[in-house]
Design brief:
The complex is a heterotrimer of chains A (about 325), B (about 300) and C (about 270).
Chain A lengths: L1 H18 L14 H31 L12 H14 L7 H21 L8 H25 L2 H11 L8 H10 L1 H9 L1 H7 L3 H6 L4 H23 L5 H13 L3 H25 L8 H22 L1
Helix pairs in contact in A: 1-2, 1-13, 2-7, 2-11, 2-12, 2-13, 3-4, 3-5, 3-6, 4-5, 4-11, 8-11, 9-13, 12-13, 12-14, 13-14
Chain B lengths: L1 H20 L21 E4 L5 E4 L6 E3 L2 H9 L6 E3 L24 H6 L4 E5 L2 H12 L4 E4 L4 H15 L2 H16 L12 E8 L2 E4 L4 H8 L3 E2 L8 E3 L2 H7 L3 E6 L19 H4 L3 E5 L10 H14 L2
Helix pairs in contact in B: 5-6
Chain C lengths: L4 E10 L9 E9 L3 E5 L6 H8 L7 E6 L2 E2 L5 H5 L2 E4 L11 H6 L14 H13 L15 H14 L4 E5 L7 H18 L2 E5 L3 H7 L2 E6 L2 E6 L1 H4 L2 H8 L3 E6 L2 E6 L8
Parallel strand pairs in C: 3-8, 3-9, 6-7, 7-8
Antiparallel strand pairs in C: 1-2, 1-4, 4-5, 9-10, 11-12
Helix pairs in contact in C: 4-5
The chains are: A mainly alpha (about 325), B alpha/beta (about 300), C alpha/beta (about 270).
Chain lengths: ~325, ~300, ~270
């Protein structure tokens, strides 16, 4: 029943994203409209992919660091992406893909740094060290970013921050193609880690005794979740809330077993982002809201409802 | 940055409400006439923040924290009395010889005070109103002027002229701007170039709305800004809105030496917009279009030329 | 016929990184199927370290550790988990879970990557629940269980692995008499009836003496004595190792330790 409900919600969100928009497209012309085919359709697909990636990454990281407050941007990736993007603009690196690639590169550098810090002193990706390293790297990157912005010419860089606030405006069939080529591997790696993550929740030593290869598991999960998040940021900026709350909402319905939880989180995140993007596009038409604000405004009531249901049962 | 993204879901409500509630300030009230000077030879005005600015004598050491005001001062013949400018004040060329006191966005009060001015002029913003109060406490007269649109400039011309004793030049400049604003509509350009959208950023797409100087220029040039209906000076819109409104030309602001076609025009999602597909871009360069200035007539002419030049 | 040798650690030495002295030096431990060994010793004597080395979690500085004839380090974690079930001292459980779910985690090493649980996995879980006498608790949430019940559930999880060797590290710390006795009796029955080899680390010298076949007494990383409880647990040895005078009195053929008053309070 739950899966049916989630499937229906996902389908409805998708249809809504394609049919509804600030530009009026009559239903009769839906299939032939250029706006629908070239803008809304890829944008809806991208919203599902990015939202799903963020929620899946968030759920995995929460299991990895054994902390329910973890989210995909905990480990410094958003700071790194922001710095990469700002550097690209400040250095006037041209080309239509300059910004996403620079953001992706920045996120990867941050990921590498945090990983390296997580190995310091033989701590072997100890969750507490990871979290601290992520916060430190993120703060450092943010500070450098702010310094660059305050010392350089204002307007271009100010607009870069708008991009970082998150949005699916860059969605096209090209972006969707890149996402479809890039996403499946990290997604599969995370889905395959579902049962090992259940075992890891007991602690690292009990997990080893139960047969889990803990060190390779942590590395795999960390890398896959970070790569997914880096790609999501490169494509759509920093969209908060989805990675943190969707996993919890799904746990209220499916419990803590990761085998159903991870796919549910993926679908749930995609649904939330697609819905939020539709609202972002239409609520103050012709203007558009940053989608990160909408994910919070839409997500909080849904989460509150689920929380009531969960605590009542 | 992650912190911002998180605080959105707490402050998001407030932010969204604030964004929606932001309306342009009312332009309809006419400026009050300057009150009589308080002492013989002294000058006094009420600035655009409603504060009374009094000088015992017309200003002779002026720090201008606004490029538009710098241009204005030179146009009024008060250029020799400008002792401080911002790094953005690049016109006229003579202005570049004046020492800079910083970028002016968050005024460096020490640098300003070091120039020993008897008058500081700032453009109107919340940050600057605070700075003006601080300057007043330091005993330095500070005036805040609005400079979003041409009528602001006309009023600013009168205000600045009074403060510098260049009343005649100010009146003549103000008349010139008024006549530009109220001139009969010029003949419309060729039909193919009437409908313009000013796109200042691509991701997210940002356009110039009805509240801005560029929109005024567009009207004066006889063209139609496709986003005139948005009251704000600039706004984020969906790409599909731009596509649906189908402008004939896309105008972009760029520094000199920028390519004729912006980099983002190659991106696939922008091909839905007809003007991008057909590469109908008008590049507006330099500071001419950035702020209301006495060069407004030149700006209008340049805009018409740029639009006419599109294929 | 000699029963199969399951665990064979010989003369192992180990020093933790940055430590001043060895945590273990020249200790051996060997177990056959159906044998119940207790490892005793004061705090910090190397009991847990011995188990970690014997199971290949730590690499010894000297000596060898083998499981079923193969070097412990050569076993993959997954394969080893089908042979050895461990109930560690500490476990976290940040997420709420039901008893049946947590016991099912014991089947991890038997499950393939993508496939779901098979009937034989559920049967193994049911058997484990039965043997540990926690069937009535199967659908309860873990947080509602008492300490003793929770320990039996953890034991059930280890049994669900269908191991040949069971390792318990201080399983009765903080349990009351009844739950302690129940656990020791359960473990003894597992060794007797199902041929499991058992290594049990405990502070409970008296219970170890009554239930274990063999006792290994460690002090400061060295093996002080090894053998049957009666042979190892003499008043002299215990006083020397634990630093407290005791009297030894037999009960049902096993030596029971009775700590003496120090006499410092003037009595």
């Amino acid at each position: 029943m739950r899966w049916l409900g989630l499937g229906v919600a996902a389908a409805a969100a998708f249809v809504l994203a394609v049919v509804v928009g600030p530009a009026h497209v009559p239903l009769a012309n839906l299939m032939t409209s250029d706006i629908v085919r070239s803008l809304r359709l890829p944008r809806a697909i991208l919203a599902f992919l990015v939202g799903g990636a963020l929620a899946l990454s968030g759920a995995s990281l929460q299991a990895l660091v054994r902390n329910p407050l973890a989210d995909p941007f905990l480990l410094g990736l958003s700071g790194g992406a922001g710095l990469g993007a700002v550097l690209a603009i400040a250095l006037r690196i041209g080309g239509p893909w300059a910004l996403p690639l620079a953001a992706f590169a920045g996120a990867l550098v941050a990921m590498g740094l945090v990983y390296r810090l997580g190995l310091v002193g033989g701590s072997a990706l100890d969750p507490r060290v990871l979290i601290l390293a992520g916060v430190a790297v993120g703060a450092f990157a943010s500070a450098v970013t702010t310094a660059i912005v305050s010392l350089s010419e204002a307007t271009q860089l100010r607009n870069a921050f708008l991009w970082l606030w998150g949005g699916l405006s860059g969605a096209s069939w090209d972006t969707v193609l890149v996402a479809c080529v890039y996403f499946p591997l990290p997604v599969l790696v995370l889905l395959a880690a579902a049962r090992p993550l259940d075992v890891l929740a007991l602690g690292e030593e009990p997990a080893r005794h139960l047969g889990a290869d803990v060190e390779p598991l942590k590395r795999r999960v960390y890398l896959a979740a970070s790569l997914l998040t880096a790609a999501a940021v490169a494509v759509s900026g920093v969209i908060g809330f989805v990675g943190l709350v969707v996993p919890h909402a799904m746990r209220a319905l499916w419990g803590h077993q990761h085998r159903p939880l991870l796919p549910a989180a993926f679908l749930g995140g995609g649904t939330l982002l697609a819905l939020s993007d539709t609202v972002a596009r239409t609520f103050v038409a012709p203007r558009e809201l940053p989608v990160g604000i909408v994910t919070a405004l839409v997500g909080v009531p849904v989460f509150a409802l689920l929380l009531r249901r969960w605590t009542a049962s | 940055m992650r912190r911002w993204a998180h605080r959105t879901h707490l402050a998001g409500l407030f932010l969204a409400a604030a964004a929606l509630a932001c309306q342009p300030t009312d332009r309809a009230t006419p400026p009050p006439p300057p009150p009589p000077p308080t002492s013989p030879g002294g000058v006094a005005v009420t600035d655009d923040a409603g504060r009374r600015v009094t000088l015992s004598a017309p200003a002779r050491r002026i720090v201008s924290l606004s490029p538009a005001v710098t241009e204005l001062l030179f146009a009024l013949g008060a250029g020799d009395w400008v002792v401080g400018r911002t790094t953005w004040c690049d016109y006229p060329p003579a202005a570049r010889a004046v020492p800079s006191v910083g970028d002016g966005l968050n005024p460096n009060l020490e640098a300003v005070a070091a120039r020993r001015p008897d008058l500081v002029i700032l453009y109107r913003s919340a940050l600057n109103e605070t700075a003006a109060q601080q300057l007043a406490r330091l005993g330095i007269a500070a005036a805040v002027v609005r400079q979003d649109r041409l009528e602001d400039l006309a009023r600013a011309a009168g205000l600045v002229a009074t403060l510098t004793g260049r009343g005649a030049a100010g009146a003549s400049l103000a008349r010139g701007i008024d006549s530009l604003l109220h001139a009969p509509a010029p003949p419309a350009p060729a039909a193919a170039r009437r409908r313009v959208a000013f796109v200042v950023w691509d991701n997210p797409p940002m356009v110039i709305g009805g509240g801005s100087y560029l929109d005024e220029l567009a009207t004066l040039a006889g063209t139609e800004n496709m986003f005139h209906d948005i009251p704000a000076a600039s706004a984020t819109v969906s790409l599909e809105t731009i596509a649906a409104r189908d402008p004939d030309v896309i105008a972009v602001l760029a520094d000199s030496g920028a390519p004729a076609v912006p980099a983002w025009a190659a991106r696939r999602e922008w091909q839905v917009v007809r003007a991008v597909r057909e590469r109908r871009f008008a590049v507006l360069g330099g500071s001419l279009f950035a702020r209301p200035s006495p060069r407004a007539p030149q700006a209008v002419a340049a805009l018409r030329r740029a639009l006419a030049a599109t294929r | 016929m000699d029963r199969e040798l399951i665990l064979d650690a010989r003369d192992v030495a180990y020093r933790y990184p940055g430590a001043v002295r060895d945590a273990l030096a020249g200790v051996s431990l060997a177990l056959r199927a159906g044998a119940f060994h207790a490892v005793l010793g004061p705090n910090g004597s190397g009991k847990t370290t011995l188990v970690r080395v014997a199971l290949g979690l730590l690499s010894p500085r000297a000596g060898t550790a083998a499981i079923l004839g193969r070097a412990a380090a050569a076993w993959s974690r997954r394969d080893l988990a089908r042979i050895v079930g461990v109930v560690a001292q500490r476990e976290e459980n940040p997420f709420p879970q039901r008893v049946r779910e947590t016991v099912l985690l014991g089947r991890f090493a038997h499950l393939s990557l993508w496939a779901g649980e098979r009937p034989e996995d559920h049967e193994a879980v049911s058997r484990a629940l039965e043997r540990c006498d926690v069937v009535p608790l199967a659908d309860r949430w873990l947080w509602t269980l008492s300490g003793g019940e929770y320990q039996r559930v953890r034991l059930a999880r280890a049994l669900a692995q269908e191991p040949r060797l069971l390792v318990l590290d201080e399983p009765t710390a903080s349990l009351d008499i009844r739950h302690e006795m129940e656990l020791f009796e359960l473990v003894r029955a597992l060794a007797d009836r199902h041929g499991l080899a058992v290594v049990l680390i405990t502070h409970h010298v008296n219970l170890a003496a009554r239930f274990a076949d063999q006792v290994l007494l460690l002090a400061e990383g060295r093996a002080v004595a090894r053998g049957s409880p009666a042979a190892v647990l003499t008043a002299e040895t215990v006083r020397r190792v634990f630093g407290w005078p005791v009297a030894i009195a037999p009960f049902e053929g096993a030596p029971q330790m009775i700590p003496l008053r120090s006499g410092k309070d003037g009595v």
